[in-house]
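Annex B, item 7. Sequence and C-alpha cells for protein A, then protein B.
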Amino acid sequence: LRNPAFFWHSWAHWTGKSCSPLPPCPPWFSRFGRRTTFVLPLILSIPLGLTVALAVDYLMLVIARLLFGAMLAGTFLSLYVARLELCDPPHRLMVTMSASFFWVAGQLFLPGLAVACGEWRLLQGAITLGLALLAACWWSPSLFLESARWLLATQQLEKGRRALLDLARGNGVSPENSSPTGEPLLAELDSWPGGSPRAEYHSVCRLFSTRVVWKNSLILGFTAFIGSGIRHCFTRNLAPYGPHFYFPYFLMAGSEAAAVLFLCLTVDRFGRRAILLLSTVLTGVSSLLLLALMQYLMTWLILALSVLGILASQAVAALSVFFAGEVLPTVVRGAGLGLILAAHTMGQAATPIMDIHHSRGFFLHHVVFASFAILSVLSIMLLPESSHRPLPDSMQEGETQHRPPLFHPSRHRRRQDQLPLLSTHSGASPYDPDTYAHLVTATKKMLDSRAGPAGTWGQGNPLSPEP
C-alpha cells in the first residue's frame, strides 16, 4: 500500500468521479432525462471496466480508471436524483438513507470479494460482471422509470402523462377516480390550452444567473467539500491505535453507517438546517481541540474526539448532498447536484494527496479545514428549511426559498409579544360588521335630524362654535 502507484490509481479514480458531473451534466440531464443518464454510463462502464482489467501498461491503467470512475459517477448521480423525485416528502429522507445503507453494505462486502478473488484483475472483472448483469435489464422501463416530475417541469406533457399512467398502474391506482375531488388524475394535462407546449431545457449555466438558488448551491457545495476533506485530519490520529488489516477502510465504512443512522433519527424531527448546523459545529470544535491541545490531551480523549469528528464529518457530507437535492429546482437538479458531488469528491481526494506527500503539510491542511468548518457555521444560517416540503420544480420556485426565522414561537402557547392589548371573549363580539353598520346609520340619522330642515347646522347645539 506504500507504493505511490496505488495512490495515483486512487487519485485517477476519484478525479474521474469528481470531474464527470462537470461537462456531461448540462446536455445529459437537461436533454435526455434521468433514465438515459443512468443507462448510457452504465453501458459504457462495461468496456471501460474490461479495459482496466486488461491494461498492459501504467498509462493505459490510469486513463481507463479515470473514465471508469466518470461513468460510475454518472450512474450514481442519476439514481440519486431519480430517487429524490420519485418519493413524496414524508418518505424522502428514509428512502434516501436506506439507499445509503446499501452503499455501506457494498463497501463492507468489497474486501471479502477482494480476498475471494485474490488478484486485482479478477476483482475488476467481477465488478464489471455485476455491472453487465445490471445493464442487461436496461430494456425494461419498469425497472427504472423516467422521472415524471422532470418531464412535467420541462413541459413534456405527453411523456409526463405516460410516466404518470405507468406509475398509477404499477401502484394499482385507477387514474380515472383517484383524485379526492372526484376529478380524473390527468384532467389538468388533458385540458391544457393551446395543445402541448414546447419543451424547455435548462443548463447548469442558469444557476449563475440566479440569486437564491446559486447561494444555496454554493453553501452546500462548500459544506460537502469540508465534510469530506477534513476527515483525513481525524483518521490520521487513529492509525497508531487500531489493527493494520484495512482498519481505516472499515472505520470509514462503519462511521458512515453510524452517521446515516443518526440522520435517520434526527433530521425529520429537528429539520435539515438544524442538524447540519449541529454536525458542522461538532466537526469544527473537535478539529480545533485536536489542533490546539493534541499534546496535552490524554489518549482516550484524542480517540474520542477523533471518532466524534469522523461521525460528524460523515453526517455533514451526506446531509449536504441530500439537502442540495431538495433545494435545487427540478429543471437543474441533476446538473447542480453534480457540481456539489464534484466538490464532495474533491474533498475526498485530500487523503491520497496527503499520503503521496507522506503527510507533509498536514498541519496547514488541518488549520485550513478547521477554519473552513467554523466559517461554514455562519453560512448555514442562510439556508432555507426543506423538511416535509415539496421539491421546487421551476427556477422561480427555487428563488422563493428563503431562510426561516431563527426562533419560532411555541406550538402550545403564544409568545408574550403576540398577545393582544385587550382581552377577547370566546363568544361573539358585539362589534360585528352588521352591528357597526346599524350604528353608523343611526348616528347619521340623528345628526341629520338635529341639523333641521333648513340645514342650519349648529343652531342650539352647545358643541357648535360661536359665530
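Protein B:
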Amino acid sequence: MMIDSISIWELSSLLLKLFILQLDAIAIRYGLDWDHAIPKSEETKIYATTDETADPGLWASHRAVNLLFILEKICRVFLLCEVYNIISSTFPIFSISFLNKTTSSESGTPESSNSNSNIIIISSSSLPPSFLISSLLIILGGFLRLQCYRTLGQYFTMQLAIRQDHKLITHGPYSIVRHPSYTGGIMLWAGIPFLTVGRGSWFWESGMWDARIPMNLINLINPTIVENMNILPFGGNVGFSLRVGALMGILWIIPWVSFIVISIRRVWREDLMLKKQFGEKWIEWERKTPYALVPYIF
C-alpha cells in the first residue's frame, strides 16, 4: 500500500517491530552464549567411555562452541537485514538497490519495487504472524536458557559431565521440568530459521530464496564444478542456473534442526548420567518433576 504520509498506528507498529528485533538479538546473544560452559577433560572421562551415556560427537569438543559463535554472528547479519528491510520499505530514500527485490517493467528492464523515493511504502503485514510467533519462541527460549545458566552456575556444561562437588539442582526452572535449558534451546533453534529466512523475512521478501547464478558463468570459472553437480537438484547443465539462494537457505536451516534433534537425544542420556551419580536423590526429583521438556506433555 502506498500513501503520502505515515499514520501514528503504522509508525507504532514499525517501532514495535524494531523493539522486538532488539529483544530477538539479546535473546540470541545470551541463548547461544556457551563459551563459559566447557568442562575439564577429567570431568567427562568417566562418561566418555560408557556407551549408554556417550555424548554425541558434535558436542564432545570445542567444535560446537566455535559453530555457535559463527552462527550467532550470522544471526546478527540477518537481524541487521531485517532492520534494513523495515527502514527501506518505509523510507525508500534509504534503500540499497541490490538488497531489494526487483521487478521487470513493461519494457523488460528491471526496476526497483521502491522506485519512487518520495513515496512512503508501508507493508500491510509489518507484524505478520510468522514474525510474532518466531520472535516469541526466540525471546522465551533465549531468556529461559539464560535463567538456566544462572540457576546452574558452574554446573552448566556443554558436554555431559559431573563437576567437582557437583550438586543436583532441583529449584527454579528445574522444579518445573528436568531439562529446561533444552526446552529453551529447542524454542530458540526453532524460531531462528523462521525469523531469518521464513515468510515475511528480508531473505524471503527480497527474493533471496530464488536467487540464481548462471551455470555458464560457473562453467567459465571451473568446468569441473558443473560436471560434478549433475546429480544435484540445483541444476548442473550449463543452460540452467544454480539456485544459490535456496542452497544458502537450506544450509542455514540444517544446523538448527540438528541442534533440536541432538537436544532431544541428550535428554535420556543426561537422565542416565544423573541417576547414576545421584541415585535416590535423582529418583526423588524425577518423582516430583516427571516431565523432561514440556509440562504435562513430555
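Comment on protein B: The mean pLDDT is 76.
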